Amino acid sequence: MRRWQRWTGERRLAKAVALPALLLVTLAGNAGPQATPPAGPDQASESFRISVDVALVVLHATVTNRQGGFVSNLGERDFTVYENGVPQSIRLFRNEDMPVTVGLVIDHSTTMLPKLAEISAATRTFVRSSNPDDEMFVVNFNEIVSMGLRGTTRFTNNAAELQGAIATPAGGQTALYDATARAIEELRAGSRDRKALIVLSDGGDNASARSLSDVMKMAGQSNAVIYTVGLFDEADPDRNPRVLSRLARETGGEAFFPNQANEVVAICERIARDIRHQYTVGYVPASPARDGAYRAIQVNARAKSGEKLTVRARAGYIAGGEPPVEEKGAK
Question: 188, 256, 184: which is closest to 220 by C-alpha?
Answer without folding.
Answer: 184
